[in-house]
């Protein structure tokens, strides 16, 4: 008969002693995890706070002004998101003044469509000299809308033309590109056409550009065979390079670099009221899986250049092509449109 108190049977007291260290270790582990979470939360809070402070340096505008009929186009839920990107050159304001128009003109106008599933981003770049109807001003170049009525009128003009609601808008002065690219440590850009400007040589193929080179690259059109169309392509390639660097591990894994990037860009940035720092973070999280290979630049529908009766050089609109784009935007099927209208 076995002795219940023998060496092979643990007493209740012995069992209690053995369990206690395990419980203590588990408690310590929970405390350590809790401390790590707390410290992480503090660090995250501080980082987001500094990021918000940097972002708040931007200018903010209201989009209360409606389209030509007084009402903005209404989109349907589940049809993705549309963001209007405007690029303005400080030097263009002098050109606008010479033409009797106050304010600045948009050198770059890109409509970014992100489908509902967030699987890609489609970026359509419109020629700045495209002849369109500007609410309250009749037919004129697309880039004149910004000069006539600022960002709200530029949004209304694009909404009218595309018959698509714009969810957010961001305007960047080209002067900000230089600081942005330098903060990123330069960007690799695919140069479509070789040219030289201001002592800088741009050679066809992949080239790493610093801030000053990127700004010159984005502005140039007179030395390019395709003129304004070629400049549009250069600006698209620069946007690809910047985006690739922004979403690279080098940037996303470095909170300090992200903060510095936002701080470098914000003073040159104007957005709608709804594009707050929290919305920027949400957009970033929603599209965190996007990579440069997911960016597509479908061709913008347009006709041939011509001279108006008043002597202005403009680009004709292509209404048939625009109807296809309008349908694609309304039905969130820009992927099909892009496949048939590659840039």
TrEMBL record:
Membrane-crossing residues?
A: 26-48
Q: Does the keyword DNA damage apply?
A: no
User: What ranges does the record give for the region Disordered, renumbered to this chain?
Assistant: 1-21, 296-320
One Pfam family in the UniProt entry: LytR_cpsA_psr
Report the protein name in the record: LCP family protein
Q: Which residues form the Cell envelope-related transcriptional attenuator domain?
A: 105-246
UniProt family annotation? Belongs to the LytR/CpsA/Psr (LCP) family.
**Record carries keyword Membrane:** yes
PANTHER family per record = POLYISOPRENYL-TEICHOIC ACID--PEPTIDOGLYCAN TEICHOIC ACID TRANSFERASE TAGU
Q: Which UniProt keywords apply?
A: Membrane, Transmembrane, Transmembrane helix
Domain of life per record: Bacteria
NCBIfam families in the record:
lytR_cpsA_psr
């Amino acid at each position: 008969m076995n002795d219940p108190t023998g060496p092979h049977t643990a007493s209740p007291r012995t069992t209690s002693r053995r369990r206690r260290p395990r419980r203590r270790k588990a408690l310590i582990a929970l405390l350590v995890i809790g401390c790590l979470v707390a410290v992480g939360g503090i660090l995250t809070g501080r980082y987001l706070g500094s990021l918000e402070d940097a972002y708040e340096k931007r200018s903010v505008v209201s989009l209360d002004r409606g389209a030509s009929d007084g009402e903005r186009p209404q989109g349907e839920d589940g049809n993705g998101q549309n963001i209007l990107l405007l690029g303005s050159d400080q030097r263009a304001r002098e050109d606008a003044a010479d033409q009797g128009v106050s304010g600045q003109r948009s050198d770059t106008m890109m409509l970014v469509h992100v489908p509902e599933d967030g699987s890609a981003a489609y970026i359509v770049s419109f020629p700045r000299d495209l002849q369109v109807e500007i609410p309250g001003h009749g037919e004129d170049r697309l880039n004149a809308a910004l000069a006539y009525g600022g960002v709200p009128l530029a949004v209304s003009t694009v909404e009218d033309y595309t018959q698509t609601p714009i969810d957010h808008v961001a305007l960047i002065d080209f002067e900000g590109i230089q600081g942005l690219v330098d903060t990123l440590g330069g960007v690799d850009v695919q140069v479509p056409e070789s040219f030289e400007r201001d002592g800088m040589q741009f050679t066809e193929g992949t080239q790493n550009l610093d801030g000053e080179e990127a700004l010159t690259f984005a502005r140039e059109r007179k030395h390019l065979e395709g003129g304004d169309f070629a400049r549009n392509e250069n600006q698209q390639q620069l946007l690809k390079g910047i985006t690739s660097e922004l979403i690279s591990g080098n940037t996303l894994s470095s909170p300090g670099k992200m903060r510095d990037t936002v701080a470098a860009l914000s003073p040159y940035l104007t957005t709608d009221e709804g594009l707050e720092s929290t919305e920027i973070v949400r957009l970033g999280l929603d599209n965190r899986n996007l990579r440069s290979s997911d960016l597509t630049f479908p061709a913008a529908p347009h006709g041939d250049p011509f001279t108006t009766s008043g002597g202005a050089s403009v680009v004709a609109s292509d209404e048939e092509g625009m109807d296809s784009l309008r349908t694609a935007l309304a039905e969130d099927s820009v992927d099909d449109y892009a496949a048939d209208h590659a840039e």
